[in-house]
Amino acid sequence: xxxxxxxxxxxxxxxxxxxxxxxxxxxxxxxxxxxxxxxxxxxxxxxxxxxxxxxxxxxxxxxxxxxxxxxxxxxxxxxxxxxxxxxxxxxxxxxxxxxxxxxxxxxxxxxxxxxxxxxxxxxxxxxxxxxxxxxxxxxxxxxxxxxxxxxxxxxxxxxxxxxxxxxxxxxxxxxxxxxxxxxxxxxxxxxxxxxxxxxxxxxxxxxxxxxxxxxxxxxxxxxxxxxxxxxxxxxxxxxxxxxxxxxxxxxxxx
Amino acid sequence: xxxxxxxxxxxxxxxxxxxxxxxxxxxxxxxxxxxxxxxxxxxxxxxxxxxxxxxxxxxxxxxxxxxxxxxxxxxxxxxxxxxxxxxxxxxxxxxxxxxxxxxxxxxxxxxxxxxxxxxxxxxxxxxxxxxxxxxxxxxxxxxxxxxxxxxxxxxxxxxxxxxxxxxxxxxxxxxxxxxxxxxxxxxxxxxxxxxxxxxxx
Lengths: 254, 201
Fold this sequence. Notes:
The structure holds two protein chains of two kinds.
Chain A: H1 13-23, H2 33-49, H3 56-73, H4 83-88, H5 95-121, H6 150-167, H7 181-194, E1 198-200, H8 210-225, E2 229-233, E3 240-244
Antiparallel strand pairs in A: 1-3, 2-3
Helix pairs in contact in A: 1-5, 2-3, 7-8
Chain B: H1 6-17, H2 24-31, H3 35-51, E1 56-61, E2 64-69, H4 74-80, H5 91-103, E3 106-107, H6 108-115, H7 120-128, E4 132-137, E5 145-149, H8 151-156, H9 174-192
Antiparallel strand pairs in B: 1-2, 3-5, 4-5
């Protein structure tokens, strides 16, 4: 039982059922179980034939469908029941499935909406904040412990990737050169020390090459882990500030 | 508002702020004006951009005001970039993200309940893209991670705030959803019954 091919055909059994319901023009509130079960099994079988990734969830759903189908076939002993009980016994075995399908369908359509917005958003571009360090007195030294988390770092990193994409000139030749993280860590520390011990996160990524950016990012994370740098966020532009811990190398006056 | 060029000041501030944008509080604090005055300046600057033959517009995203390039110039901007076309999210990631966005805070198990399939990988993708993050832990055994959306999520979809998400649809137009799947079904049919006629819709 090996299916390693992943074709994005369906997003799971609920998705497949929805397609079947639409295709067969079935009323979702009154699903003919025999028909849909037959069709469903037919497609699961086909997916196996095509060596698609038939996740176990598909088989669980198949069993569920068969169970509902057989429940529907059970005779109802209405005369044995009192009126009161009758009301409660009116439960349709399909109810739960229908509810799940409708719930899932809502989010599927919400996902479509998001997709449209993603497209739309991809049409407009922004620029990174201007570097105003020229006119700032100096970054205040009192610590504002704003708890920069790994999520903040990742957010900053992704923004950076987006920016670097745009800055890339059309005719760059990327020279593939493996940079060891250790070496980059050293460089980052040197850079920081040469720069009053502090730099903005974005300033540590001089080259718009993905490889270099990734290595730099990992180097920064590693330095954080080793407690060799401090990471802070100014409140104003929410820029992440990286500071070398061992203080500043006395590099004379500027 | 006669002597001071508020519009010009705001324009330079927004230019400098770039994609970090500025929220109303920052604008009023820096310009030392009242909120309603600031909103007025924002509005007039926005109209200036929209009416003129300018390449920039003023928009509100993720709780901040930002200057962005106009949509209609996208083809030219894309020529600047080496690999045009953003990498977009997969269907699985989009569905997962939709569920998290509307139902946050939510655990992986709860997402999987809705989707009916394992959702570990899409969740990881979304976390690594900074679109969702851990926002706490669920009560009870296992203390499952609770996920919620981030500011980056708002920015990624150009939303002002989370309230701007359209309400979940109650009535669904199935037609639109069908189109993409039809091709696949046809392929199936051909695979399974190569000698039969294709069913006509």
